[in-house]
Amino acid sequence: MEFGSVKHFLRGKTILVTGATGFLGKIFVEKILRVQPDVKKLYLLLRASNSCSATERMYNEIIGKDLFKVLRDKLGDDFDSFISEKVMAVAGDVSSKNLGIRDVNLRKAMLEEIDIVLHSAASTKFDERFDVAMCTNTMGALNVVNFAKNCIKVEILLHVSTGSFSSISKT
Ligand SMILES: NC(=O)c1ccc[n+]([C@@H]2O[C@H](COP(=O)([O-])OP(=O)(O)OC[C@H]3O[C@@H](n4cnc5c(N)ncnc54)[C@H](OP(=O)(O)O)[C@@H]3O)[C@@H](O)[C@H]2O)c1
Prior knowledge:
single chain; alpha/beta; Rossmann fold; 7 helices; globular; binds NADP nicotinamide-adenine-dinucleotide phosphate
């Protein structure tokens, strides 16, 4: 796919991102918002006990980083309202069923709205405890696939992991 057509494809889309506090996820979020500001919405699934803590993590560990300086400078006073309109932190955990999203109404809305799933959450410690790595990297991927299967209009699931970069699309 040419870059121009990727940009066009992203217009009006709702995207679920896992691993957004991570090295790659953060770059993905910034790039989408900068090159395709007409994206509809990004749901960022973050490990947190509730939506307030997830939102706090989103601002402290993603949006507030220097990486977003270009976008912040470009949008000026509109930056904060742009972020509030386009980006929503969701408390969850990929190792849990339904990605640990406890808010039923939010989960329902996500299942109805999501067009694209980008899964980059993982334990990247090479000496991680086996059970933790298994829950996060293996069961986590399965939980994301199952969640995506329940998204009524999902078009693509992109899974980024060491040794694999795979995507599944409906077409
Ligand atoms: N970085 C690279 O150069 C590179 C190259 C090739 C492949 N990859 C692969 O790409 C993927 C992402 O890499 P990365 O470098 O961005 O990793 P990273 O910086 O270690 O970030 C991992 C992300 O996963 C999240 N996460 C971990 N366990 C989770 C869970 N149970 N539920 C929800 N989120 C969870 C972390 O959230 P917390 O903030 O809560 O910990 C963090 O946001 C990995 O599979 C990695 O192996 C990376």
